[in-house]
Amino acid sequence: MSDPPRTADGHHIVVDGRKWRATDPAIPEERRAELTRILMAWRRKVRQARGTDRESAVRAGVHAAKVALGERGTPWWEQTDEQRRARWETHVPAPDDSSQD
Question: What residue spans carry the region label Disordered (predicted)?
């Protein structure tokens, strides 16, 4: 699968004509892959939790992963290198991670 097109400044990807914030390109590949796996696991949990009292908790997991990837929160292009590194190095629990409760 090819990567979606990016805006000229590289800050956003374009999917079906809509702009979405791009993942921080400075994240080391291994960490980016790990965070992406965690994000996808949380998204699967959201599907399972829709309409239940757990939905907001699992959506918080999605949000935490997206912040770590630089797709939410302070834009990565406005952060210092130290802030960016701290963001992606922050522990983001996977849905089955016992430290999340």
Answer: 73-101
> What is the C-alpha to C-alpha distance for residues 89 and 18, in angstroms, rounded to an integer?
29
What six digits make up the tokens of 98?
């016992």
The predicted structure's pLDDT at residue 101: 43
Identify any residues that bridge with 15 across adjacent strands, giving them in sequence order.
18
In sequence order, the 6+-apart residues with CB closer than 8 A to the CB of 99 are 91, 93
**Which tokens belong to 41?**
């696991």
Residues of the chain with pLDDT under 70: 1, 97-101
- Which residues are CB-neighbours of 41 under 8 A, at least 6 positions away? 94, 95, 96
